[in-house]
Amino acid sequence: MQVHIMFFGQLTDITGTQELVLHDIYDTNTLQETLHELYPALANAKYAIAMNKKTIQGNSMFSGDSTIALLPPFSGG
Amino acid sequence: MQVHIMFFGQLTDITGTQELVLHDIYDTNTLQETLHELYPALANAKYAIAMNKKTIQGNSMFSGDSTIALLPPFSGG
Amino acid sequence: MGLPVGKKINSFGMSERKPKNIFQQGAIPATFISESIQKHSSQTAIGGHSIFLGQVRADETENGKVKAIEFTAFEDMAHEKMHLIREDIFAKYPLTCMHVHHSLGHVQSGEICLFVFTSSAHRKAAMDACQETVERLKAELPIWGKEIMENDEHQWKVNK
Amino acid sequence: MGLPVGKKINSFGMSERKPKNIFQQGAIPATFISESIQKHSSQTAIGGHSIFLGQVRADETENGKVKAIEFTAFEDMAHEKMHLIREDIFAKYPLTCMHVHHSLGHVQSGEICLFVFTSSAHRKAAMDACQETVERLKAELPIWGKEIMENDEHQWKVNK
Q1: Cβ contacts of D113 on chain A, cutoff 8 Å
Q2: Do the strands C143-149 and C60-61 form a parallel or antiparallel pair, or are they unpaired?
Q3: What is the ipTM of this complex?
Q4: Alpha-carbon distance B31 to B48, whole Å?
Q5: pLDDT of B4-58, one tens digit each?
Q6: Given a contact as 3+ CB pairs under 8 Å, which chains touch D?
Q7: What CATH number labels B2-71?
Q8: What is the domain partition of chain A in residue ranges?
């Protein structure tokens, strides 16, 4: 099972990349822990999480390959 | 002393003219009586009166030559 | 009286705005609107524009179908009233600018007869000011619309 | 997925609107706006249009003066969200139509980056729907603005 992760906005200043693929991660809590280890500044950044384009709250299990987006506060318009 | 009277909108359907000059009339009540005699359908029309471009309420005396406008309900825009 | 004029300093050193001419003959072309928008690109303190456009509807009425409206106005009084509305709106909202244009004469159904355009640093002032200006000018400006039907009958427009 | 598409009847016989593409590369030209207005002249049931335009401000910030904003978006998610907003607004207001356009990429100060356009028979629905759409899209669409300063530093735009 693989997780495709997308970073947007100011988060790309931290990660230096817009996309990342990780394997063998089964829920969003574990994913966040892994990402905060990879990019410590992420832990202090404000962002919401979308799984397959839907914003989610709390810990969510991945069912099969998933696309996760880390969304900092929106500033369109 | 003369009064210059302007008719607008649907009132011109009644009067057939947009302007009229009357003499020796000293207040708006007398003016209205005179106009309603000249154009009986005016008595049933809805309109406001402006004296020198300011809307007035009640009877008003003319001080010198005046311009009176009869204003049916506005329908701009 | 000079009409399309902006601010002027009077002998007391106070700013004094002369009424602007809001009327133009016939429909307001879409290109007039885009030119007006384009002119604001040099005003980089503006963050939001709000625009209202009135378009003549081909209403089906008991007297027939509306094909055009013919607008007349008591122009001098309308300009004085619009000047007061403008002063009120500028006192109430932090606007950068406001432009109002209204047709006189013949405007066919589908054409634009009213163009209200407000701009401000932040969106809310522009939107609220635009809406309030539209409401006030419909209620307060001495303008009349004569609806011309396809059968050439006419009836007088009534604002709600 | 076909993007700039209108209504479609699905296999249950129900109307189904596909998300429209709201994004375009770079600034929104004033002529694009006038062409959009002009297209509505054949829709003679329309009595009022409301338009909101977002313009990039040359803000003075502690990091310098803004010369441009570079917009990025999670486009697929933005289209799904915009589709929901559109459905809500059409359910709430008697609109004839609604058009939304947002820039991606580089937009210089003074240029237009957002164009929201609503039309209805009577003015109130168009104005209220326009304002609500603007508020909702600013809050709900995954779009980000990177403010580019004159000294080529950058900072991320924050919506209020």
Answers
A1: 77
A2: unpaired
A3: 0.92
A4: 13
A5: 999 999 999 999 999 999 999 999 999 999 999 999 999 999 999 999 999 999 9
A6: A, C
A7: 3.10.20.30
A8: 2-71
